Amino acid sequence: MVKNIQCLEKCLFLKLLGFALGKNKNKKIRLNRRQLLVGTASLSAIALTSKISNSQETNPNNLPPNVPEWTSELGVGVDANPYGMPSEFENNVIRRNVEWLTASTESSVNFTPIQDLEGIVTPNGLCFERHHGGVSVINPRDYRLMINGLVDREMIFTLDDLKRFPQTNKFYFLECAANGGMEWKGSQLNGCQYTFGMVHNVQYTGVKLSDLILETGLKSKAKWVLAEGSDSSGMTRSIPIEKILDDCVIAWAMNGEALRPEQGYPARLVVPGWEGNMWVKWLRRLEFGDMPYMTREETSKYTDLLPDGKARMFTWVMDAKSVVTSPSPEKSILHKGIHQLRGLAWSGRGKIKRVDVSLDGGKNWQTAKLHDPVMSKSLARFTLPFEWNGQELLVQSRAIDETNYVQPTINELQKLRGVNSIYHNNSIATWKVNKDGTVDNVRLG
Ligand code: MTE
Ligand code: CO
């Protein structure tokens, strides 16, 4: 079984690597004049997107001064939706996966539709999912968290035990280290959702590990923690004790309700600002030790092969990053005049301090408006009004965090790390707005 899963994971890894190395079969178009590489992956989901929105034609009978059809009849009763769902006209706002990137649905990933969301909260049903062995179904009555190793008292907690501790309620982003992994060598996927959508941002309710540890006590030799999931993938990661005691949380709720099964119901580890892989879902055990455990997920995976043949390891922090969500490949500009450019920025090192936006491929920059609340290790929303009169634009955004770290260009990143990585691509993306208002993911040459 374990071998099988490792094989699937290897498959997904090789596929990601293939795309990072530009080995995909998809045709690329080289634009000589500006030397742009356009991502041309033919994604049926995107085609579907435009089809659906185009087919929603206006019915003139519903427009003023007529009485619209929904006014002349009774609406639906309160018993129709015990658990509410979005409007049927929003059925295009969904998680999507890339079929050819998917080894199997159990060892797979889908993407948050960030281009369709407002503000900074990701609705629970739209949070991207990354599973290495499928979604476990756990009856909360059978849930136990075991704490063992270099503690004074080894203990086992039920879910109710955890809920009796003082609680914390904080917003954090979770980003998979492989977000944008397919874009290392060139633009591959013509979609904001597929290039930036392995991120979500929710309010977590849970207990801080520093509080829980008051109960178990800690031996002075304890320097590392092994976090272990109870799903079939046997997900395990080592986390240094400083991080565990600083801001790590065991969460049982997101955005006010119980965790979704796909997000680790009934309890997951929250490791603010650090790569998603460490946020162990369906958490069953924390073992305190005196050295890192060197698990598969921190040796063979989640390391970056550098040009000199060495590999970076323990690359935990997610560096500052931003993306323009509209206009974007899924969000064409539909008419001339004033528009609100919208985007998201985040940093694993703290708060976003500033976001700059360029409409000419990085020659000139303007400062975007950051919207409250701007919280540490959480998505931040930015907007910038701009006028479009049918001209070509090269739209970029650049995040700067409170440590003054500046989001790099892809050239700067490649100079440091080469092109063999699939993890930690936080480079500035470029969206090319064409004269007809459509938008492409391009790479400036
Ligand atoms: N925890 C367990 N137990 N099993 C998993 O497969 N996937 C990891 C992490 N925790 C995983 C896990 C990865 S790679 C990521 S990016 C995040 O969970 C994804 O969290 P999400 O599915 O809530 O978006
Ligand atoms: Co991940």
Describe the protein:
It is built from seven helices and 25 strands. It has 445 residues and is α+β, with helices and mostly antiparallel strands. Residues 1-55 have low confidence and may be disordered. The protein has three domains: 1-55 and 89-93; 126-312, Sulfite Oxidase, Chain A, domain 2 (Alpha-Beta Complex); 321-444, Immunoglobulin-like, CATH 2.60.40.650. The protein has helices at residues 2-20, 44-55, 159-163, 192-196, 209-216, 241-247, 410-417; strands at residues 29-31, 36-38, 108-109, 130-131, 145-149, 155-157, 168-175, 199-208, 224-229, 236-240, 249-254, 257-258, 268-270, 283-289, 304-305, 311-312, 321-326, 337-346, 352-358, 366-367, 369-371, 380-388, 393-401, 430-433, 439-444. Bound molecules: ligand MTE and cobalt (II) ion.
CATH topology of the largest domain: Sulfite Oxidase, Chain A, domain 2
Instruction: Please give the share of residues in helix.
Output: 10-25%
Strand content: 25-35%
Write down the domain tally. 3
Structural class: alpha+beta
**Order of strands, widest sheet:** 1-2-25-24-23-19-20
Shape: globular
| C-alpha termini separation | 45 Å
Small-molecule binders here are:
ligand MTE, cobalt (II) ion
* Mean model confidence by pLDDT: 89
Q: How many strands?
A: 25
